[in-house]
Design brief:
Subcellular location: Cytoplasm
Cofactor: a divalent metal cation
Structural class: alpha+beta
Enzyme class: transferase
Strand content: 35-45%
Number of helices: 5
CATH architecture of the largest domain: Sandwich
Number of strands: 17
CATH class of the largest domain: Mainly Beta
CATH superfamily of the largest domain: Probable inorganic polyphosphate/atp-NAD kinase, domain 2
Largest sheet: 6 strands, antiparallel
Protein name: NAD kinase
Helix content: 10-25%
Order of helices and strands: EHEHEHEEEEEEEHEEEEEEEH
Shape: elongated
Number of domains: 2
Catalytic activity: NAD(+) + ATP = ADP + NADP(+) + H(+)
Strand order of the largest sheet: 6-5-16-13-8-9
Amino acid sequence: MTLKIAFLAGRAPVAQTARADLIEMYGDVPPEAADVIVALGGDGFMLRTLHATKNLPAPVYGMNRGTIGFLMNEYSDVDLKTRLSEAEEEVINPLSMTAKDQSGQIHHALAINEVSLLRAGPQAAKLRITVDGRLRLSELVCDGALLATPAGSTAYNYSAHGPILPIGSDVLALTAIAAFRPRRWRGALLPKTAQVRFDVLEPDKRPVMADADSISIMDIDWVEIRSDSAIEHRILFDPGHGLEERLISEQFT
């Protein structure tokens, strides 16, 4: 059986050149007809590819032709079909975000890495945090806060001093960004089944934006976030270089 591959690439010339070379060597089919989708770029392009192909049956195998490649495999055009047949699969669930802005409009978005709330003005944000309907923090004064999946825990979450979460741990990281009060509050680990709600306090004076994998919503009143187990993103990695190994290795660098 011939392996049918769809090659997708980011805008960078190096990614476009790699796509042209690979198509010449291995052929190309539309993503809807592919057995495997190969994404050429960085992590940002990989996230966009995963979002765009979430309803397709083919898994996604990324090769790094960008600046960041935590979700990507090393680029090589040699014996690609063997690499694809031997690749190991990781399945991750995205976060589902529902947000209401100050005009009353409701927004929906999915996030593979994290949903973040960020101050959108000169003053710190004030957030109230509720988990599964129970008030957990009546007021967090901060530059922002985020809820990250294990797959996204080494991204913005890690830069904000949040924990790295092993794949399969069934937990989410709730992390404060430059918390001012409570000053020493670093966040919390929550079960994957938790539903988290952020209410923006003083939204007119202290505007806040929400961001789900670069989908931004301005001037929000509240945001609700939960893990969506109905959506499964299938990602392929070279043997010994899967997400679990990368998450462990990242903690020793």
